[in-house]
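Reviewers of the previous submission asked for a worked example of the structure-prediction workflow described in the proposal, so we include one complete record here. The input consisted solely of the amino acid sequence. No template or homolog information was supplied to the procedure at any stage.
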Amino acid sequence: MNTYVNQHSTSPERLDDSDDDYQEGYERVGRPTPAHMPTRSGSEAGEPADTVEVPQVANVRRRKNLILVGCILVNLGQSVVFSMAVLGKIKSDLSNDEADTIRMALLITRRLGVPFASLLMIGMGYRIVGIIGCSLVGLGLFIASWVPRVAVGTITFLVGGVAGLGFAFLSLTVIVPILETFTKHRLRYLVMVRSAESVSSIVFASLTLVPDIEIDWRILYRYQLVVMVVAGAACVLLKPLETIKADVTRGVIGRLLGLSDFSLFKGVTLYLLILVYVLDQIGIPTTRYDLSSLLEDPTKQFGADLSVRVIVILPFVGNLLGLLALVFWKMFSLVDILQMLGPVNIACGLLTLQVPALDKVAWVAVYAVVFGMSSGVFLALTDNVIPGAFGKQSIRIVEGILGLASGVGLIIALPASNALSTQTTHGYESSFYLSGSALVISGLLAVGFRFVLLRQNSKKENSR
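From that input alone, the workflow returned the following structure tokens.
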């Protein structure tokens, strides 16, 4: 039996810049045998035969391209629907508190559901998980659109619970195939996939600024079923290069987590990354939602014309710009990534602490773009470094753990921000103070994390 062995890559040049069309991703694909060399039907020294079917290079490349296209289409579809559910005007027959409760339930479930999605993906594959996710989102929102207003608890369950879990499945479905399939130019492909999310958010957020466009949320929720059907069909393209064969020697827990050993949990690397990730996620959600409150503050006298209201879109624009800038990024080891993410988070955190004092629209706009760029860069670089830092076999479980960390960060940020809001004049200041502090601490930890890794690598080299 061929068993994938988890090897932690330490060579930067192997992390992203050495393509192999024949052996990439979670599934093993054999190398072609040159014409002048005989094909070995069995191993030496009497070992049992070990044959591997070798796909043609053109077929492998075609399937890899289909995976890329499928991830882009699925992410575009789920991002359109998610933007509609979060940014859409769903208050036509619901109170502000009820609408906010539904949104928060959706956001929290989307993140906390990622660990469950990762475990399901280990056992069933990302194609099945993607189809299930599309079904949960489509049916959850569609059924919710027919529920009467008096049953707001049922609406919250369907939108925040059922659809939120579906979004969790899809958020993993669009990233894991890229990480497992590609090695060379993997970061560029991640940029392409994540850019679809940014573009859809920009388009839908722009539509919400047009006063003449007022579509009932129930109608939106019904027609999104068409989008989810298309996204579900795109999931069919996510066919792995080769089917994974279960390794019965790993034990129940090993098979559940998709690991051949548990070295992933023995070092400090994963735990330090989780801590940095949690703090970064604490700094992201509250700032995005309180930017509009800052612009509406009457004491700032920003005004209410379109040129001011459009600032709420700029974080998404910054996110897209940050992703596009990564096309030219050339360093791919975890040490190199931390060298960049640490100062970026520190700088963004310090800027966030100054936001409540800003009294010029131009400075708020600049901050919104910078904030969006930092968040986009952080997520893309973190995703890209996972295969090299932890091994490709660990991608699914590590993504699930980081998804849980993101959910924990959101759960901490929201109540903490609400509790601190009573201590400030307008309420929104506490969100920026909390977010800025979390981002600064996250950046400092990233810098310290880098020195820990450098010291570990130095000890390993000296021990050789």
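Confidence is low (pLDDT under 50) at residues 1-53. We consider this example representative of the routine output the project will generate in years two and three.
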